[in-house]
Design brief:
Blueprint lengths: L7 E5 L6 H12 L2 E4 L1 H9 L4 E3 H5 L14 H8 L5 H9 L7 E4 L4 H6 L4 H6 L4 H11 L5 E3 L5 H10 L6 H31 L11 E6 L9 E5 L13 E4 L5 H14 L6 E6 L2 E7 L3 H11 L1 H4 L2 E5 L5 H9 L4 E6 L4 H7 L6 E4 L9 E6 L2 E6 L20 H14 L7 E4 L6 E3 L5 H19 L6 E5 L7 H8 L2 E6 L6 H11 L2 E4 L8
Parallel strand pairs: 1-2, 1-4, 2-3, 4-5, 11-12, 12-13, 18-19, 19-20
Antiparallel strand pairs: 6-7, 8-13, 9-10, 9-11, 14-15, 16-17, 16-18
Length: about 525
């Protein structure tokens, strides 16, 4: 069958970007009869486009606040009839149904309505019925009908029609049909997820995730693994990694993405200017300070060797001074991510062609839910945030932390959450100078963290005294406390809850250590 020439087009769009120009081209260049509805018809008529109102086609008025206008045999018959089927065409002629060769439709902005915080009733009213019905009818009959869902497609469609005597090609129509079913699948999934959330809460019995490819990746964790980066708009907060603007550097790799997300997630825990340097999913440097440059200096001094080839995240605008300090340290970095950059900072960073520079445009909390894949399944959980109220902490030891120690403990507690379990974080002067990540037993983590802390103190020329420690989970035995005490730790923050808490408390009392129980655990596997 020859490619059908477009003679009649039904146009009904929520996003009116470019629709006037597209409709003008259809009518002026190709003599297409444009049928339209509601607000779209008014916009076209005001622009001088000749429009046939939908009610002239259906011989039925739009009714029920526009809920019923295109759900009619003269619309769907004109879309679904097979042009090469004699019976179809005879039945169409008998009932006065004329063919429709193109549908230009995009849907009510349901997702944006939900994101705006609209009430339940408003969200329900923004569930499109006629739009998806027309799209599906047209897409099913792609042999005869071209269906257009995005303004970005208009120019290419017109150019193809110019080259083909007013017709579209089958290859294009098939691709457009695929786009329709992807669009309606995503749209229905968003409605179902929202309604489930209203009824069943955060973990419904079933959940559809709509993954949209952001980019292909050269490879995965290793060169022999294929990989791609997908976005899930339902869980992409405004300033999350997937919405960051890349201002410089090569494309992000699989490992870049994993590490950058971990680094950006951690730095967002802090209100004061903070910098985190992360390598292989662990924060090898972390600090808060009065300025972002000072925070970077402190974070770098935590472990300059591990900082080489790392990811840097800041929770405030990156200053030129901070980038100058990165250059003075001759620190090679893979990625830097921040809400924004001073122009001088950006100019310096853009001199490094391989450094990926990401701007998020702001800072916000991560989405409410995270997913991890396992063989044949998915795990889902709410995002782990350090949002405990210090007023609810308990101090079971004889010695209570001083005000300065408590401030230091709260800093260490936030950083420790970003360290792989078993996790111990030793800090001094609001910098994470010692990290013990991922050890099978907590004593080894404690030793490793303390050794790194002492190395940092020697490097910085400060005494290894007054150190504080955070542990992501409780101490199962007092040997953890004894180890920390031997390295000069004077205050500890941990969840508590072990059946041997009394042993740890007694050990702290013997060493004169203040210990805080938060009542919350922050494992990171």
């Amino acid at each position: 069958m020859a490619d059908p020439v477009v003679k009649r087009a039904l146009v009904s769009v929520t996003d009116k970007t470019g629709i006037v120009e597209f409709a003008q081209a259809l009518t002026n260049e190709f003599g297409v009869q444009v049928i339209s509805t509601g607000g779209t018809a008014r916009a076209l008529q005001e622009a001088g486009v000749a429009v046939t109102p939908i009610e002239e086609v259906t011989e039925f008025p739009e009714m029920m606040d526009g809920r019923v206008k295109t759900l009619h045999p003269r619309v769907h018959g004109g879309l679904l009839a097979k042009r090469d089927n004699a019976q179809h065409m005879a039945e169409a002629a008998e009932h006065g149904i004329e063919m429709i060769d193109m549908v230009v439709v995009n849907l009510y902005a349901f997702e944006k309505t939900v994101e705006s915080g609209a009430d339940f009733g408003t969200c329900i009213e923004n569930i499109d019925i006629g739009g998806p019905s027309m799209l599906r009818s047209a897409a099913k009959n792609f042999e005869s009908v071209a269906v257009v869902t995005e303004p970005e497609s208009y120019d290419a469609i017109l150019e193809e029609m110019r080259q083909n005597g007013g017709a579209t090609t089958r290859d294009t129509r098939v691709k457009l049909a695929l786009k329709v079913f992807q669009t309606t699948n995503s749209y229905d999934g968003a409605i179902a997820s929202w309604l489930q959330g209203q009824i069943e809460g955060a973990t419904p019995d079933t959940r559809d995730l709509h993954l949209v490819k952001q980019q292909d990746l050269r490879y995965g964790e290793n060169p022999h693994q294929n990989a791609a980066f997908y976005r899930v708009d339902e869980f992409a907060s405004a300033h999350s990694l997937v919405n960051a603007e890349q201002l410089n550097g090569k494309e992000l790799s699989y490992n870049n993405i994993l590490d950058t997300d971990a680094c950006w997630t951690l730095v967002r825990e802090f209100d004061e200017p903070a910098v985190v340097i992360l390598k292989h999913q662990n924060p090898c440097g972390s600090a808060v300070a009065a300025t972002v440059a000072e925070a970077y200096d402190k974070a770098f001094e935590c472990d300059p060797k591990s900082a080489f080839g790392g990811i840097i995240a800041a929770n405030v605008t990156v200053s030129q001074e901070m980038v100058e300090h990165i250059n003075e340290n001759k620190q090679f970095i893979e990625v830097v991510i921040a809400p924004d950059y001073e122009q001088g900072a950006l100019d310096l960073l853009q001199q490094k062609k391989n450094v990926r520079v990401l701007r998020t445009g702001g800072i916000d909390a991560p989405a409410s839910l995270e997913f991890r894949s396992v063989d044949g399944g998915m795990l889902a959980q709410s995002i782990d945030r350090v949002n405990e109220d210090p007023a609810e902490f308990t101090v079971p030891t004889d010695r209570k932390p001083t005000e300065d120690e408590m401030h230091e403990l709260l800093f260490a507690w936030k950083v420790c959450k970003g360290v792989k379990s078993n996790a111990i974080l030793v800090s001094k002067n609001h910098a994470g100078i010692g990290m013990g990540p991922g050890q099978p037993n907590r004593v080894d983590s404690a030793k490793l963290a303390c050794e790194r802390a002492h190395e940092a103190c020697d490097r910085m020329g400060v005494p290894a005294e007054g150190l504080v420690c955070a542990s992501d989970a409780f101490f199962p035995f007092r040997d953890n406390v004894d180890t920390l005490a031997s390295y000069g730790v004077t205050a500890i923050i941990q969840p508590g809850g072990s059946i041997r808490d009394d042993e740890s408390i007694q050990a702290c009392n013997e060493h004169g250590i203040a210990m805080v129980f938060t009542g919350h655990r922050h494992f990171r596997h």
